[in-house]
Amino acid sequence: MRSTSLALTVVAIAACGGKAATTPSTPAPAPAPTAPGTSGFPGLDWGATVPAVQAIYPSATGDEGLSFKTTLGGEPASVSLVFFEGELERIAVEFDRGFDSMGECGKTFATVRAALALGESSEENLAAYWIADSYSAILSCNIADGEAASMSMSYGHPEQ
Question: Residue 62 is part of which domain span?
Answer without folding.
Answer: 50-156
